[in-house]
Amino acid sequence: MDIADVTDRRTFDDDSFQKSNLFETDRMFSDVYCFEPGQSQTPHTHENADKVYYVLDGAGTFVIDGAEHTLEEGNAIIAAAGEEHGVRNDSDERLRTLVFMAWTTE
Amino acid sequence: MDIADVTDRRTFDDDSFQKSNLFETDRMFSDVYCFEPGQSQTPHTHENADKVYYVLDGAGTFVIDGAEHTLEEGNAIIAAAGEEHGVRNDSDERLRTLVFMAWTTE
After folding, report:
1. What's the predicted TM-score (pTM) here?
2. Which residues of A touch B (CB under 8 A)?
3. pLDDT in the model for residue A64
4. Does pLDDT of A70 surpass 80?
5. Average pLDDT, whole number, for chain A?
6. Cα dihedral B79, B21, B73, A38 sign
7. A78 vs B30: CB contact, 8 Å cut-off?
8. What percent of chain A has pLDDT over 90?
9. Do the chains contact at A22 and B76, CB–CB below 8 Å?
């Protein structure tokens, strides 16, 4: 058992977006990602893992297999295994997302 | 790819707490759970799955291996595989939680 206060996870950095880990096990992790305006997560692909983003604060552009989706606070999106995915904060406000990733275990 | 507006997931029912599925794959699901005051999820155990709860609205009592933890909006808790876990809404307000569960794949 472990508890996290997600409202406290605000680790912004001028150099790049930041990840703050909440939980991790053998089969999943949960993080908070913090993006200053203009910061992004480069699109990438996990062949054997699904990732869910949930927007905590602000708005972001989520790029899934090249298609762009603007999500606001309270929206969620999944990038299933094999789908290229990235995030851009094109807004003038800070963006925070919850992230959950689950991967295939052996 | 799929998108969900979590703010719209408010499927309360007087008979019991309700689950509203957001996403599901071969290795994980994501739901919203909606509890009226007094409703609960009976403690149970998954031997090969980890579950994360994130409180969207309200407050709840999360019981992990018999220990009670009161969480409010913006708090998260993990019940790792093998840990008995349940939820009670002891408050006078509605409780909504995000839920993420990841399980061992074969």
Report:
1. 0.97
2. 1-7, 22-23, 25, 27-28, 30, 49-50, 52, 54, 64-65, 67, 69, 71, 74-81, 83, 98, 100, 102-105
3. 96
4. yes
5. 96
6. positive
7. yes
8. 97
9. yes
- Report the alpha-carbon distance of residue B80 to residue A4 in Å, rounded: 14
Residue B1 has a pLDDT of: 54
DSSP string of B46-98? -TTEEEEEEEEESEEEEEETTEEEEEETTEEEEE-TT--EEEE--SSS-EEEE
Using one digit for the tens of pLDDT, what is the confidence trace for A74-87?
999 999 999 999 99
Spans in chain B with pLDDT lower than 70:
1, 106
Identify the pLDDT of residue A47: 95
Report how far residue B65's alpha carbon sits from residue A101's, in angstroms, rounded to the nearest whole number.
24
Going from the N-terminus, what domains does chain B have, and what CATH number goes with each? Answer: 14-103 (2.60.120.10)
C-beta atoms of B27 and A50 within 8 A: yes
Which of A50, A62, A73, A106 is the mutation pick for testing B, counting most B CBs within 10 A? A50
The predicted pLDDT at position A1 comes to 54
Q: Do B25 and A98 touch (CB under 8 A)?
A: no
Select from B20, B84, B19 the least CA-distant residue to B51.
Answer: B84
Q: Check if the interface score ipTM surpasses 0.85.
A: yes
Residue length of chain B: 106
Distance from CA of A44 to the nearest CA of B (A): 14
From B3, B65, B79, residue closest to A71, measured CB to CB: B3
